[in-house]
Amino acid sequence: MMNIIERDASLKDFLLQKYFDASNNLPSWIITSCVTALTLSALLSQYIPIVPKYISDLQLFGYQVNKFGYTLLAVVFFYVSKSALGFLFYQSIGDGRKWSVFYFTSTKFYFILSFLLIILCVAHYYFPVDRNKIFLYYFYFFAFVAVFKIFFYLFHKNNILPEKWYYKFLYICTLQIAPLLLLWKLLFF
């Protein structure tokens, strides 16, 4: 991705790049989102207790959805709906021009997160780990990432969240915390 889309930029150049100097923001965002969704699904699918009956009864081209497919569908639905609601949020408060800066900044966060998820997937699938013990560590890791993401968005130099404090609070509660709880309920209960 760095060679083609970002025109031979190094990792440091990509992470320190300013919004107005950047090009190909949308393809970078889409590729990073796909990698994050795939690796997160690969990591979480081993812990899904069951695929709901109404999902497993659906047959797509003669194939039945397994745990990975169900997790991938849930994560993609989560990510697409969260992005669409974020776009509508910025448009509804009259700050639509900040949306492109927001997804430019969030691409950098998810780019680093995707590297960490790839490392976790390699460690999970290629090294002998006790799945039951490591789940608690994964839970703490994802809780830390969620809290760190909120602070990253709050204190980033691009000021990607709205200026007024109540819009910041509304964004954090409705578009950061509530979707994570919904995804947790959808996958694990």
TL;DR of this structure?
Keywords: Hydrolase, Membrane, Transmembrane, Transmembrane helix. With 189 residues, the chain is an all-alpha fold.
Structural summary, described in words:
Pfam families: DUF4271 (PF14093). The structure is a single chain. The protein has 189 residues and is mostly helical. It has one domain (11-188). It has helices at 11-16, 25-44, 53-56, 67-92, 97-126, 131-155, 165-188; strands at residues 59-60, 63-64. The longest helix is centred in the middle third of the chain and has 30 residues, at 97-126. It is globular. The termini are far apart.
Number of strands: 2
Task: Give the count of structural domains.
Answer: 1
Oligomer: single chain
C-alpha geometry: globular
User: Rounded to an integer, what's the Rg over CA atoms?
Assistant: 18 Å
- Estimated share of beta-strand residues: under 5%
How would you write the strand order of the largest sheet?
Answer: 1-2
The SS-based structural class is mainly alpha
GO molecular function: hydrolase activity
Transmembrane segments: 26-48, 68-89, 109-128, 134-155, 167-187
Keywords: Hydrolase, Membrane, Transmembrane, Transmembrane helix
Protein name: Putative neutral ceramidase superfamily lipid hydrolase
